[in-house]
Amino acid sequence: MKVAIQGELGAFSHEAAGKLAPGAEIVPCALSAEVFAALSGGRVDAAVIPIENSLAGSVLEHFDLLLDHDVRVLAEMPLRIRHNLIVKPGTTMEEIEKVFSHPVALAQCRKYFAIHPKMRATSYYDTAGSVKFVMDSAAAEARHMGAIASEAAARVYGAEVMDAGIEDNPENYTRFFLVKRTADAMPVADANKVSLAFSVENRPGSLVAALNELSAIGTNLTKIESRPVHGKPWQYIFYVDCQLRSAEEADQAMDALRRHCGMVTELGRYRESRD
User: Fold this and answer.
1) What is the pTM of this model?
2) Is 127 a catalytic residue?
3) CA–CA distance from 74 to each of 133, 189, 270 (Å)?
4) Do domains 84-164 and 193-270 have the same CATH topology?
């Protein structure tokens, strides 16, 4: 089984993929769009993507990509995100001038940079990729560099963890989805959660009416997110997660929404993670 992730080997997505699809071959992709292209094109069997972080919020691009491709969410999993300052072996703390990482990771370590003002936070496309970049740099340059990433990234590239757990808030979790092509997605036994996308007419009370329909059948809404419709200014698609008491409730929720919505799409039914 081949599973695509956005980022390099050793990224947090790699760790999540190892838990959601044990034993799978990981296929790293530079961009999220490449992950979905690989899945839709049949070059991989599944994808593991981050959908939201407990501190930074939703990964908005992934909502759009889920809707734009014929795929289904089959599982979710929260992963504890622990950031580490990682360097090329032999580097000292006093030498570090630039620290590379994904912008979200850098933002989650602001307090660390405040107490180490000599270190300049520098954006890079991926956490694990920043470790690879530092390790691939010439020795004279690398001694002034650091990266923020997972402990696994340090192991993958032979780097050294200089300072562990440097994030501002330890309650830092990212929720990941396991996604497959719709044609290959087998029903999940005992699914108790559903992700849906829908659009409503641009008139007063249309969104409230749609949500009231969900409330009327007793569906518990656990998340709602809005995204603009590309090419149609000031029109929006709403994404919701709902807890289910039965398999039939997902169908009831979709039928209820269709009475008020121009479009209703199921993104997946899966077991709610309790970790």
Assistant:
1) 0.92
2) no
3) 34, 10, 5
4) no
- Three-state SS for 184? helix
Q: What sections of 116-196 are H helices per DSSP?
A: 127-136, 139-142, 151-157
Rg (CA), the chain: 21
Beta bridge partners of 180: 72
Task: Give the dihedral sign, CA 35/36/41/46.
Answer: positive
Based on the residue annotation, tell me whether 176 is a catalytic residue of this protein.
yes
Question: How far apart, in whole angstroms, are the C-alpha atoms of residue 234 and residue 71?
Answer: 26
Return the pLDDT at 275: 64
Q: Around 203, how many Cα atoms within 13 Å sit in the side-chain half-sphere?
A: 7
Cα distance from N-terminal residue to C-terminal residue, the chain: 25
The CATH classification number of 193-270 equals 3.30.70.260
Distances (CA, A) of 107 to 61, 84, 166, 174, 178: 19, 13, 11, 15, 26
Report which of 260, 162, 148, 156 is spatially closest to residue 205, judged by C-alpha positions. 260
Q: Which fold has domain 84-164?
A: D-Maltodextrin-Binding Protein; domain 2 (3.40.190)
Q: Tell me which of 133, 176, 177, 238 is the catalytic residue.
A: 176
Task: List, for residues 159-180, the tens digit of each pLDDT value.
Answer: 999 999 999 999 999 999 999 9
From 174, 198, 219, 238, the catalytic residue: 174
Is the distance from CB of 221 to CB of 214 less than 8 angstroms? yes
